[in-house]
Design a protein that fits this description.
alpha/beta; 12 strands; homodimer; 5-stranded mixed β-sheet
Chain lengths: ~350, ~350
């Protein structure tokens, strides 16, 4: 198992990315290929005394795609960008997976242009694991596409289901369609048409409509939606969590001695709870539907989340998610074509 | 100021609704007309010893619209439903505002059918105040409409701006368009076309695109979106907040003596913080764009949120939100018509 890590992508790159990769290598989660500015990567590695005893190599890439660049243009112009070089390593069979915490748009576009879509998949989807009390709910698409057609959402439901089963260990994943009410007749045109498709889809365990509140409660294993809605929800969750933690800290600081003592006594309990709800625990979101494993990590990824994303990449590859998706959607496509001939 | 309160709507109706109305009457926030099953309302009032000294009257309504009923059908069939009777009191000029914590769909439909739209408004919108560290962000539409056209969102931006200024005391409300990126070119077709409209709209202070995280952070005063997205976000926020509180309680219970002591010491601090973030503090969401004040309260409203919703209704009426909206959008419409003649 060899994983190409975009060392230059992310708010805390390259230091935290390299540190996470080293941690993963120490645990033998995978062989690591760090892709990016060789001098900078070497500097970061110098802080990790044992790195030369680990399975870590460097592939130099002289350019970086910034968060504010237009993804498609940047990918075309910067042939030597770290995310491009890393994705090509997968295309060329030199690595099994690519991981980036840089611009999501750039990682998605690189995957679409270089790895290409799996035959039978109209649109790849980002599947983000959202923490719940009992584990995670997979939310897809969380930002690869907007203005999706019902057929795209049906494919997402199948891909999400396959991933939840293969990687998240859900036996018969409960699939929900994100909507504004439980009833079949609720929602916008997209949701109503998608409901009809999912209801008749034998490849998934479609339970019905999921409302916003069902995501954090964990009432479904897979929640399918348009990438516009998924992306808004994902960023809203991040914003709410950070705002809430800041307010609690502020309140404790302003709360006098007893509040500070209380916070001190509660700390271990909240820490344990934090681990359960920590997005870093789940590391990365796979881009499902492209010909190769691309894992997208949060921009604010620290070493721990990179380590966990590497673990996720390993699980994706080990459990043959790619073959399972192709086995279903490519086969379906071929049958359609032969039926129409 | 006379406010018709749907006593039968809400998870804790009629008891909590009546209790909230009584609290509001005690504070002279408004004269209250409780609408619903007279016997049940009288029973609830019997628990409030001073109620006969307060300005509270009862208007009997023999039917109730359930949460699972189809709004338009139910409104047509149940002429004597509490929300219908209460809305008619506004239509007939007997009350200044109507308030319901029952089915949102029913309250919206009743308002649309009975009060009708303000001339120049294509689609009314629910404007929900979302708590932020510094106050609230008004999110609209949060569920009255789906598949909105850019023009509908432009009207929402104007109405939300007027409400934020008149009722929430924001001098020059910062208006944002909910989107998946900051750049003008980001988003789905609806968002891109709406951006162009809002950019050129001199009646509002359009700041640009808002991302999901900007809502809880309070980076905008008014955030405009399609009702599908707004409703998903609203319910997601509710689900996340309740799940988080349940998990904290559970963690404290499992955390032994020190966790319990810590929680005890922290309680006053968290309580103060809770007040800042409590949706009940903001009581209700106005349905903007209909000819009369309709305030929609959360289904799980308790007495406190009903009292605050009555306060919100009073502010709406007192600050002439209706005239301000008509003054802008009806006037705009007439100018368009006269220009085209």
């Amino acid at each position: 198992m060899k994983i190409a890590v975009d060392a230059m992508g992310g708010d805390f790159a390259p230091q935290e990315i390299v540190a996470g990769a080293v941690q993963a290598a120490r645990k033998n989660l995978a062989d690591i290929v760090l892709v990016g500015d060789e001098a900078k990567i070497t500097d970061c590695l110098a802080k990790e005394k044992d790195w030369q005893t680990l399975s870590i190599t460097i592939v130099h890439a002289g350019e970086v795609i910034g968060m504010d660049e237009h993804p498609a243009e940047a990918i075309r112009q910067k042939k030597d960008a770290s995310v491009v070089v890393a994705t090509k390593l997968v295309k060329d069979g030199k690595c099994d997976a690519v991981l980036s915490a840089g611009s999501t748009g750039a990682a998605v576009t690189a995957a679409q242009l270089i790895l290409k879509r799996i035959k039978g998949v109209s649109r790849p989807a980002i599947a983000t694991p959202m923490p719940t009390p009992e584990g995670v709910t997979l939310l897809l698409d969380s930002g690869a596409n907007v203005d999706s057609k019902p057929e795209h959402l049906r494919e997402s439901a199948i891909m999400g289901s396959i991933y939840a089963k293969a990687v998240l260990g859900k036996e018969n994943p409960r699939v929900g369609l994100l909507n504004i009410g439980e009833e079949e007749t609720k929602g916008n045109e997209q949701a109503k048409e998608t409901y009809a498709l999912l209801k008749d889809e034998s490849a998934i365990n479609f339970v019905g409509n999921a409302e916003g509140r069902d995501i954090p409660k964990g009432n479904f294993d897979v929640v399918v939606c348009d990438g516009f809605v998924g992306n808004v929800v994902l960023k809203f969750a991040e914003g709410l969590a950070t705002t809430f933690m800041e307010l609690i800290k502020e309140a404790v600081m302003d709360g006098g001695v007893s509040a500070k003592a209380g916070a001190f006594l509660l700390k271990p309990t909240l820490k344990k709870l934090g681990v359960r709800l920590d997005v870093d625990e789940y590391g990365g979101a796979p881009l499902l539907g492209v010909n190769g494993c691309t894992i997208i990590s949060h921009g604010s990824s620290n070493a721990k989340s990179i380590e966990n994303a590497i673990k996720a990449a390993g699980n994706y590859v080990h459990n043959n998610v790619l073959d399972a998706i192709a086995g279903h959607l490519t086969k379906e496509k071929s049958q359609e074509i032969s039926a129409s001939v």
